[in-house]
Amino acid sequence: MLMIKDLPRYECLLEAMQRYPDLDPSACEAYLNLLRAGDEAYRRSEVFFNEHGMTPGRFTVLMLLYDKLAGVTLEQTPAELAEKAGVARATITGLVDTLERDGLVTRKHDSGDRRMMLIHLTAKGQAALEAMLPGRFKQMAAQMAPLSEHERKALVRILNKVAGQQAPAAADSRATLAQGAA
After folding, report:
1. Three-state DSSP class for 108?
2. Global pTM value
3. What is the pLDDT of residue 11?
4. CA–CA gap between residue 180 and residue 51 (Å, rounded)
5. Residue numbers in the chain where pLDDT is lower than 70
6. What angle do CA 53, 129, 49 make, to 5 degrees?
7. CA distances from 126 to 10, 41, 71, 74, 104 (A)
8. Residue of 36, 39, 12, 35 whose CA lies nearest to 23
9. Phi, psi for 121 (deg, rounded to 5)
10. Tens of pLDDT along 93-114?
11. 72, 60 contact by CB (below 8 A)
12. 66-74: long-range contacts at Cβ-Cβ below 8 A with a sequence spacing of 24 or more?
């Protein structure tokens, strides 16, 4: 992502409003800061994933195939993975191809419907994921360290409001933060 290093001062936005009456300076300032924070979070995630030979997309697929609470793997169809990740099935196919090549997932036919493929996390994939998770959680905690617990909850509520969603229950918001956009 490309983002300017130094955001415009609020006074500059006020001046620009003279030329562009639809410019809301506080909305623009908030939006640009949101983009910058998102870019920084994504950049830090990419550095972490690169250190582990992973991409955010591949990590997301592995997480979707892993039951974090029970510590067991799940079988899912490419369509289910695409729906949960919010991407096209073709995107999932490409990610699964790479993960399968690296021995982290396997495909197998559904015993109930031979036309359907199921994606399964291999022991190697589960081990890779479990080796990465402590560092990933540590990285996310470090990035959120400047915020108090109260501020984090407020941030989650605000971001959900901006995204047009209702604020999730406290447990759901902690789970969302723990997963990170995976």
Report:
1. strand
2. 0.75
3. 83
4. 17
5. 1-5, 69-72, 165-182
6. 30
7. 48, 25, 9, 11, 7
8. 12
9. -75, 130
10. 999 999 999 999 999 887 777 7
11. no
12. 66/121, 66/126, 66/129, 73/120, 73/121, 73/125, 73/126, 74/121
Q: Which two tokens stand for residue 89?
A: 């099935």
- Domain ranges in the chain are 7-51, 55-131, 146-182
Longest dimension (CA), the chain: 66
What phi, psi does 7 have (nearest 5°)? Answer: -75, 155
- Say which amino acid occupies 100: E
Class of residue 62 by CB neighbours under 10 A (exposed 0-12, middle 13-18, buried 19+): buried
Write the pLDDT tens digit of every residue in 40-70: 899 999 999 999 999 999 999 999 998 776 6
- In CATH terms, 55-131 corresponds, of 3.40.1180.10, 1.10.3720.10, 1.10.10.10, 2.60.120.380, to 1.10.10.10
Q: Supply 25's token pair.
A: 């300076």
Tell me how crowded residue 132 is: count the other CB atoms within 10 A of its CB: 19
